[in-house]
Design brief:
Blueprint lengths: L2 H8 L2 H16 L13 H15 L11 H4 L8 H17 L4 H12 L2 H4 L3
Helix pairs in contact: 1-6, 2-3, 2-5, 5-6
Length: 121
């Protein structure tokens, strides 16, 4: 399954945004990675992330934000365990939205592509 099919399964830009907001709220409250979001505007971050994924899903023609690597330069180092925890939380949100296994795996595979650009060793 590709991301266009994932978008079709989700059904709308509004649902993608709601999913992203739930995801970022979950990350912000997480004991392991929540500190990355202290004092941050979760709504703004969620909107940018939704715009990014909607572009990847083919639902939008452009994305006006920074690249994943650039967007994370001002943060403390993102270690492999932090990246892994993010993936676990994303999967949790996708499952809570009753996405198919194929859609969940397609989205997680897409996110995994950014590991080398974001994770510091």
């Amino acid at each position: 399954m590709d991301l266009k099919a994932v978008y079709a399964e989700i059904g709308s830009e509004a649902r993608v945004y709601d999913l992203m907001l739930e995801f970022y709220q979950l990350m912000a409250s997480d004991v392991m990675i929540g500190f990355f979001f202290t004092g941050r505007d979760l709504d703004a971050i969620s909107r940018k992330q939704a715009e990014f994924i909607l572009r990847a899903m083919g639902a939008r023609g452009s994305y006006s934000g920074k690249s994943p690597a650039q967007a994370h330069t001002h943060l403390p180092p993102i270690l492999p365990g932090f990246f892994d925890r993010r993936a676990v939380l994303l999967e949790q949100v996708l499952r809570s939205r009753n996405l198919s296994e194929a859609a969940i795996q397609a989205w997680l595979n897409f996110e995994e592509q950014f590991r080398r650009a974001i994770v510091q060793r």
